[in-house]
Prior knowledge:
By secondary structure, this protein is α/β, with parallel strands linked by helices. The protein has helices spanning 17-34, 60-76, 91-98, 113-116, 129-132, 157-166, 181-193, 205-213, 224-233, 280-294, 297-305, 315-336, and strands spanning 49-53, 80-84, 106-111, 133-143, 145-149, 172-175, 198-201, 219-222, 236-241, 267-275, 309-314. The chain is built from twelve helices and eleven strands.
Amino acid sequence: MQYPLCRSSPRGSRRLFEPMLAVAACTLASALLAAPAQAQPQNFPSRTVRIVVPFPPGGSADIAARLIAQRLTETLGQSAVVENRSGASGTIGVGEVVRSAPDGHTLLMTTGDFITVPARLFPTMPFEPRKALLPIMRVVSVPLVLLGHKGAPFADIKQMVAAAKAAPGKYTYSSPGSGTVNQIVMEGLALDAGIKLLQVPYRGGAPAVTAVTAGEVQMSITGPATATTAIQSGTVRALSLMTKERPPFIKDIPTIAEQGYPNIDGSLFVGLYATAKTPPALAERIGQEVRKILDEPAVRERLNAVGLDVAPLMGEAFRDYIKATGEHYEQVVKAANIEPNR
């Protein structure tokens, strides 16, 4: 596009200021044309912020996202909404964020599976998550809980292992999807214990817990958010926390280490991400806004009440954590011979 002042003026030789004005106008025009190319932190947000959760409502990521969206709406002066885009083990929702404009207005809130689980477990995924996503921050840590159906012939890990050894391949567990951290942790336990269990994948943590309460499977490995109501109602039993230590807000469930398996550390995390081309300064701005929300005592209390441990980690520290966790999962996947999700 050419601007009138960018053309030479027939009267330019008689007026000294016209060439100067022309240069200034051309510079301004170029700047205006280039301005939309990169979102600026100081202009964020300029419209509604969408936080995509790639699973159905009710899971850990969904709960954290809704609480944060509510507070972002109040602190930023623009609406922040949560959109659940489930399907294909979460890759539909993740892909929507990957393809979004790098302006911070479409974000991803999800468990760490996509960024830490070996990519070869998802051979049909149309992108490489570690390259396609920009990690903004770890939001919460989620200690996994192993639930048992009330009619199952075991009430703790020792009894479950004994039952599984007596009937290899008989006992099933539900997970929020194949290739998830939940499956890796459970298969790691089976490997350590020398037993064979069968995984039944569901589309999210809430449906997986519904399956165990309905007796479709004997066990389910899930986060406290989806386990709390079922445990309190008595429809299922908590067999174990799959972590080495008990978080301060869960005191009445024994850990897997306490029950004889100290090498298992089954927790996952919920992180906030943007598409990879998002400017780092903008990602930092978004992370700082969320960090301020997580520092609020009322927010921490509400997250702890559903079994989510506030664990903010930003920038390089978060990326290092992702790398180390991914390397550990790779070792487990190889040892347990976990098959790709097809």
